[in-house]
Amino acid sequence: MGVELYVEDNFYDLSLTNSVNIDESYTRITAETWENWFNRWLEVLQPDIPAALGYEIGLRLTDDSEIQELNAQYRQQNKPTDVLAFAALEVDFPHSEEMLDSVPLYLGDIIVSVDTAQRQAQQQGHCLTTEMAWLTAHGLLHLLGWDHPDEESLERMLEQQVKLLKSIGIAIDKE
């Protein structure tokens, strides 16, 4: 099992027009680090996800302006948000075992606003890298069918995110 990860780091292309100062403790997370995190997270989640030869995920790091456009277009909420997830799997997704043994299973795309992540990291009192991992783990869970329409399901999802971050060596206390 492995993950094919496509990282688009649009945020840094737009950083000259960005109004948020990036946390100096944040060093750009490399594609290799992202891939290691996703591989570890998928190992942790393995009992609850479709078995496949591998998995494919798109990750786009962007700014508040672009994520606001996407949020308005796809969720009819004309405001920035921290993370969006566009899941490719459906509950009745047709797939054969032969297909899953020959090609990676495309899970979908995760989009994270580094602007919002920076503000939230400051509010939570932790570094930007921790917040980026937190938001991306949240997006991954959405790709795998998790949702939080009520307080009880949100609590279960947050507990799972804490577990995922611990698996990559990040301790976090989220409420």
Automatic annotation (TrEMBL):
PROSITE patterns listed in its UniProt record: UPF0054
GO cellular component terms attached to this protein's record: cytoplasm
Summary of the function given for this chain in its UniProt record: Single strand-specific metallo-endoribonuclease involved in late-stage 70S ribosome quality control and in maturation of the 3' terminus of the 16S rRNA.
UniProt keyword annotation of rRNA processing present: yes
Residues binding Zn(2+), per UniProt: 138, 142, 148
Location(s), subcellular: Cytoplasm
Keywords (A to Z) from UniProt: Cytoplasm, Endonuclease, Hydrolase, Metal-binding, Nuclease, Ribosome biogenesis, rRNA processing, Zinc
InterPro entries named among the record's database cross-references: MetalPrtase_cat_dom_sf_prd (IPR023091), YbeY (IPR002036), YbeY_CS (IPR020549)
Signal peptide region: none
Gene Ontology terms, MF aspect: metalloendopeptidase activity; RNA endonuclease activity; zinc ion binding
EC class name: hydrolase
The protein's name in its UniProt record: Endoribonuclease YbeY
Family statement: Belongs to the endoribonuclease YbeY family.
Pfam families linked: YbeY
Gene Ontology BP terms: rRNA processing
The gene coding this protein: ybeY
EC code: 3.1.-.-
Cofactor detail note: Binds 1 zinc ion.
Source organism phylogeny: Bacteria, Bacillati, Cyanobacteriota, Cyanophyceae, Nostocales
Main location: cytoplasm
Cofactor: Zn(2+)
Family annotation (SUPFAM superfamilies): Metalloproteases ('zincins'), catalytic domain
Domain of life: Bacteria
HAMAP family registered for this protein in UniProt: Endoribonucl_YbeY
